[in-house]
Amino acid sequence: MRYSNRSEMLITLLSISIALCACSRRPNDEQIVKDIQQKAATDEDIKGAPVKVEAKQGKVTLTGKVRTPAAQKKLEQIANDQPGNTGVDDETTIDPDAIASQELAPAMAAAVSTPVPRPKPQPIVVPSGTTLMVTTSQSLSSKTSQAGQTFLATLAQPISVAGKPALPKGATVSGKVVSAKAKGKIKGQGELSLTLTSISVQNHTYDISTSVLSSTSKGKGKRTAATTGGGAAGGALIGGIAGGGKGAGIGALIGAGAGLIGGAATGNKQVEIPAEAALSFTLNEPLTLPPPPE
Fold first, then answer.
1. Tell me: the pLDDT tens digits for 25-52?
2. pLDDT tens, 122-152?
3. In which residue ranges of the chain is CATH 2.40.128 found?
4. Cα separations (Å) of 74 from 39, 63, 78?
5. Triad 152, 158, 161: Cα angle to 5°
6. Does the structural domain 128-289 have CATH classification 2.40.128?
7. What CA–CA distance (Å, rounded) separates 80 from 57?
């Protein structure tokens, strides 16, 4: 009996000692608070948030504001994982100002990172009806020229659209002889008709469609000029060759629209247009050019 009682007492004392040792090893409230605060301070979602941590007899109370629901869950998890806690009371709230700023942040970042696109330069359109004054690079004649023959000229006057330069003076222009009839082909008349087919700007050639300039000689000292194919009827024929003299004035025949300038009819009923004669054509269709270089 004595040995049995002693054994029971030893077992009781041993249990009390173990319990006391366990209690001594369990973190106190101050240590619990300190550990939770340190872990929260190193978390990217929680650090800097005005959060207060308290502990009483192992029970942890969390108060204050966090920026996101995710931060709130992280803080609660840190407290629950803390050794020595006997429970966690999470009284933290979500900061509405922080939520608003986070919602605006992506939009602001996108606005900063995405540059505002500059408006695309618009092409230049030379409208139909625009008059093109050109200077011929070669002589043309109702006697020597043939239908389908091409000729070259240069733009005598620059063209602008809405104050922006479109076609520069001196641009190379190509034309075509529409018809050429020498003396005796039609009741002794000489006839010459011309049109422009293309213009070259900045190493690029653009097809164009213009009015047809026609000049007919009916007899010595008599001549007519007209524009067709989109231009107004009538025209002007000034200067040229009279009796073989280049540049001698032979009068003018001026109609309702711009026409032929610089051509002439000689006494032998041929229509002669000397080199460097000024001719006027009208665009039948708009001419679209690329935007000017910036």
1. 567 888 888 888 888 888 888 888 888 8
2. 899 999 999 999 999 999 998 899 999 999 9
3. 128-289
4. 10, 14, 6
5. 125
6. yes
7. 15
